[in-house]
Amino acid sequence: MSCSECGRPICTDCVTFAPVGLRCPDHAAGGGKPQGVQDRAQRAVRRTTSVRSTDAIVTKILVAINVVAFLITVAQGSGLNSPGGTLFNDWALFGGRGIIDGHIYGGVAGGDWWRLITSAFLHASLIHIAFNMLALWWLGAPVELALGRLRYLSLYLVSGLAGAAGALVANPNALTVGASGAIFGLLGAGVVLEWQATGSPFGNYLMLIVINLAISFAVPNISVGGHIGGLIGGILCTLAFTKFGRAHAAYSRLSPIGAVTLAIVAAGAVLVAYLKTRGMA
């Protein structure tokens, strides 16, 4: 990414999503811009500085939860590349009744609705969690700085739900785990933020989405449905934060319209999961 004012490269820790483009720290306050825009930019800088002082705390907590869950499943399972045990079996996503380690589990169709979100905190191998947590840190931190903690956490969880619904649509019988649905939601949020900052959706985040979707289709055993579902969920949530184009996501608060839209997206994901898995119990 580069500053729209001076052209210098910006890392994800320093970027500010301004109404007039992506800004480096030196130009984040919008010097020379109209007073209303400058005031909003200065408020955004103060909020960003406040979040940075705690190092994107929500992203850090999410990474920690994923790592702790992985270590527990490694200890209960058969090693770093074969996690398992009670936690894994109780949290993993699958649609209908299944037998794991000799025990019968009802799946989502059997009433285990928590699997739609808990599966986003499990991982299948060391390389799986390593790539996902690296992506979560790189992508999550700047989105958290732009949206604030509450909206960022809401975005992450609802995108995770949407990703789980997408995974069930693609293959309701597969056992699915991973944070990638929620992470694709962050990519979707990045596209909306970059579009509002630059006036065009064709930027860094869209390029990352294209590359990662290509990998999803090319590499076996990747939940393409989960990635696409999370991406759609993330875009819808962030559009809700913008009041569907009437406000800037980086400066507006969570409005009643935004909260209702989040609830609708989450409920829609659950409904899709129900419709896809009914009759499978």
Question: Any key phrases for this structure?
Answer:
single chain; 281 residues; mainly alpha; two-stranded antiparallel sheet; 10 helices; 4 strands; 59% helix; globular
As residue ranges, the low-confidence spans are 31-53
The assigned structural class equals: mainly alpha
Estimate the global geometry from the Cα principal axes.
globular
Main sheet specs: 2 strands, antiparallel
Secondary structure: helix percent: 55-70%
Extended strand count: 4
Oligomer: single chain
Mean pLDDT: 84
Strand content: under 5%
- The ordered H/E elements are EEHHHEEHHHHHHH
Rounded to the nearest angstrom, the distance between the terminal CA atoms is 48 Å
Radius of gyration: 19 Å
| Widest sheet: strand ordering | 1-2
Number of helices: 10
Protein described:
Helix content is 59%, strand content 4%. The protein has helices at 35-52, 57-76, 85-91, 115-118, 126-147, 149-170, 180-198, 204-218, 224-241, 256-277; strands at residues 16-18, 21-23, 98-100, 103-105. Helix 6 crosses helix 7, helix 6 (149-170) packs parallel to helix 10 (256-277) and helix 9 (224-241) packs antiparallel against helix 10 (256-277). The longest helix is centred in the middle third of the chain and has 22 residues, at 126-147. The protein has a two-stranded antiparallel sheet with strand order 1-2. Strands 3-4 form a two-stranded antiparallel ribbon. By secondary structure, it is mostly helical.
Task: Please describe the topology of this protein.
Blueprint: E1 16-18, E2 21-23, H1 35-52, H2 57-76, H3 85-91, E3 98-100, E4 103-105, H4 115-118, H5 126-147, H6 149-170, H7 180-198, H8 204-218, H9 224-241, H10 256-277
Antiparallel strand pairs: 1-2, 3-4
